[in-house]
Amino acid sequence: MILPPRQRPDNPLRGVVLLVVATIFFSASDTMAKVLTASLPVTEIAWLRYVAFVVLAVWLDARSGPGRFRARRPALQLVRGVGLVGSAIFIMLALRRMPMAETSAISYVSPALITILSIPVLGEVVGLRRWAAVVVGLLGVLVVVRPGTAAFQPAGLFAVACALCWAIASVVTRKISGVERATTTLLWSAVVGLVVLSAMLPAVAVWPRPGDLALGLLLGVVASTGQYLMVLAYRHAGASLLAPFSYMQLLWATAMGWLVFGAWPDGFTLAGAAIIVGSGLYMANRERTRQLPAPQPGPV
C-alpha cells in the first residue's frame, strides 16, 4: 500500500491506534481466507477479495477528483500491481497448508528482502549492520521452516514468495511515491490485480456456495478496510514509529489460529518469529536513524 504524504499535523497516538486496528483486520481476513481454502480455489478467493478492493479504490478515486487513473510511470504501476496480487495468492497458498502463526512469521521477513532489493532498484547503500540484520532475519525463517527435518513444510516457501512479492511492491512504491498520487497508485493496484485474477479465474473457478460467496466478499471488505486504515495511520505518524506496531499482527494471527483452528505454534516457531521480529525492528530503527538530520555544530 502506498503511503501518501501527510496533509495534517502528526497525531502519533491516532496513527498507532489505526495501525493496530488494521493489523486486526488483516489477521481476520487471513482467518477467513484459510477457512475458504477448504472449499474454493485460491485464485477465486483472491478474485473476490479484489472485487471489494476495486470498489474501495474507485470510491477513493471519486472523492479525489477526475483523472486520477492517468499514471506517470505505468510500467512501474503494473509491476507493483502484479507484486501485490502475487503476495495475495502466495499467502493464501501458504495458509491452506500451514498454521496462521507460522505463515505470518515467515511473511514478516519482507523488511530484509526490501533492504536487499533497495540496492539495485533504489541505489541505496546498505551498511554492515543492516546486512547483519538481513542475515539474522533469514536465519529466523530457517528456524521456523526447519528445512531438512521432519517438521519441514514446503508450503513455507509460499510464505517466502509472498514476502518477496510484497517486498517488490514496497520497493516500487518507494520509487514512484514522489511522482504518483496515492489514489492513482491504489486504483492501478486494484485494477491490475483484478485483471490478472480475472484472466486466471476461468481455469480454476467453481460455483461457490452462498455461504462461501458471502464470506469471500466479506473477506474483501475486511482486507480492503485494513488497507485503508493503514493509509490513514501513515498520514498521522511516521513509518519508523509505526513499524514496531505492525508486528502485533503476529499476536492476532496466533490468537485467531488457536481460537478458530486449534493450532498453537511450537517453540521453534516462537523462537524464529522472535528472531524475525527483532531483525525487522532493528532495520526499522536503522532506517529512522538514517533519516534524522545531521546534528548542527553548536556555538564556539
Primary descriptors:
mainly alpha; 0% strand; 12 helices; globular; 75% helix; 300 residues; disordered N terminus
Describe this structure in words.
By secondary structure, this protein is an all-alpha fold. It has one domain. The chain is 75% helix and 0% strand. The chain has 12 helices and no strands. The chain has helices at 12-36, 42-64, 74-97, 100-107, 110-122, 128-145, 156-176, 182-200, 210-236, 239-246, 248-261, 267-291. The protein is globular. The model is unreliable at 1-7 and 294-300 (pLDDT under 50).
Class of secondary structure makeup: mainly alpha
Query: N-to-C SSE series?
Result: HHHHHHHHHHHH
Radius of gyration: 19 Å
Task: Estimate the helix proportion, in percent.
Answer: over 70%
Q: Mean of residue pLDDT?
A: 83
Major β-sheet annotation: none
